[in-house]
UniProtKB/TrEMBL annotation:
InterPro entries: Histidinol_P_phosphatase_HisJ, PHP_dom, Pol/histidinol_Pase-like. Keywords: Amino-acid biosynthesis, Histidine biosynthesis, Hydrolase. It comes from Desulfobotulus pelophilus. Belongs to the PHP hydrolase family. HisK subfamily. This is Histidinol-phosphatase. Coiled coil: none annotated. The keyword Amino-acid biosynthesis applies.
Length: 287
């Protein structure tokens, strides 16, 4: 069992994207799970992206590859089936949760309700990758284009956190994914998140997370993208810790080489912030 110098076990509440079921990931899901086992993870949540319901909500790489909404839905069904098989196969060595990562574009409420009914995941990671139905996290060009369309970065941040609040209240996902992803390509995010119009929205959303007893994904993929700190940023981490919110690492891996990346750094940050490393497990649906 892998543990850091203080004996903290490794887990991932948001991870395991694979090349089998995600066009911007690599390697097979089984290979990825074997890596989690090799690193001694206690448990892991595999949280594949939900399929785009209509062509305009596909990722740019999916568009270039000609992947249709029908194909994406069929592939997602194969993901759920395969993940359940592997959940049983790996049970003696690794506890696996079969989850899905939500979107927050127009119609997501009915989309998620139908997907939950159809596929019965263990839990949902509630994420926001679009603002006003415009993607922002695929590339810096896309990010800046969306900001311009929405009247600037401050406006985009405000609309992001408003949509996230709506998603939290609507879906009440067991895990809130990469809470401040909106900062991705903003070198001035440290000062921007302190601006009153943005800061009060962050506090409101954290209060919603606390009120519903949800988990915050302490998402380590930010390091992989070249950031100096995970999602969430230090000031938000301090607020969340003060509110007693559970923060749990998510490696958000997209291939074998990314499994467990930056876990030591992430756990050290959480320990220094006074966050419990007696990791809360996600609340699973009771079907």
């Amino acid at each position: 069992m892998h543990a850091d110098s203080l004996g903290t076990k490794w887990v991932s509440v948001h991870g395991g994207h694979s090349g089998e079921f995600c066009h911007h990931a690599t390697d097979s899901l089984e290979e990825i799970l074997e890596k989690y086992v090799a690193l001694g993870f206690l448990w892991v949540g595999i949280s594949e992206h939900v399929p785009a319901p209509t062509p305009e909500f596909r990722y740019p790489d999916q568009v270039r590859a000609g992947l249709t909404p029908e194909f994406l839905y069929e592939r997602f069904g194969r993901y759920m089936t395969r993940c359940r098989e592997l959940q049983r196969i790996f049970a003696p060595r690794l506890q696996i949760f079969v989850a899905m990562e939500s979107e927050s574009y127009s119609g997501y409420e009915s989309l998620m309700k139908n997907l939950i009914t159809d596929f019965r995941p263990d839990y949902v990671v509630g994420s926001v990758h679009h603002v006003a139905d415009l993607g922002f996290d695929y590339s810096e060009d896309q990010y800046m284009s969306t900001a311009k369309a929405l009247g600037g970065l401050d406006s985009m941040y405000c609309r992001y956190f408003d949509l996230q609040f709506e998603m939290i209240e609507t879906l009440k996902p067991s895990v809130v994914g990469h809470f401040d992803l909106i900062r991705l390509f903003d070198p001035d995010y440290g000062s921007r998140i302190q601006k009153p119009d943005i800061a009060w929205r962050i506090t409101r959303n954290l209060e919603a997370v606390a009120n519903h007893n949800l988990i915050l994904d302490f998402n380590l993929r930010a390091f992989y993208k070249g950031a100096n700190e995970p999602y969430v940023a230090a000031p938000i981490l301090q607020q969340a810790a003060a509110m007693g919110i559970s923060l749990v690492p998510g490696d958000d891996s997209h291939g074998v080489s990314q499994v467990g990346n930056f876990m030591k750094e992430g756990i050290s940050i959480l320990e220094n912030a006074g966050v419990s490393t007696n990791w809360k497990m996600p609340k699973c649906f009771d079907f």
